[in-house]
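debug: dumping io for the single-chain case to check the tokenizer round-trip. Nothing else runs in this session.
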Amino acid sequence: QVQLVESGGGLVQAGGSLTLSCAATGNVFRLSDMGWYRQGAEPQRELVAMTQSDGSTTYADAVKGRFTISRDNAKNAVRLQMGSLTPEDTGVYYCVADVGRFSTRNWGPGTQVTVSS
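debug: decoded output
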């Protein structure tokens, strides 16, 4: 079983910055993609950013140029640096990690990010 421990959420003013961190523990075997989703006012969770095991990255258009995702393979950890935050970035941010032979996606419990105007 894989556990994802997230940290770094909170309240910030528009224009500010926050950094989210996530570490995968437990039976972390064949860890491949890691990243972040978020759920704001819409019911569906949306992809924010992903990083593959080779270091390549993918970003949602809404965060390109403002967010940076990075990972530490030695620690099975991923970090999301968020800048120039707007109220539209408010939501619960979920860490994900694909593990195992079939790249099973594991989800963290979520961390709240609130951006005030």
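debug: round-trip ok. The CA atoms of residues 45 and 83 lie 20 Å apart.
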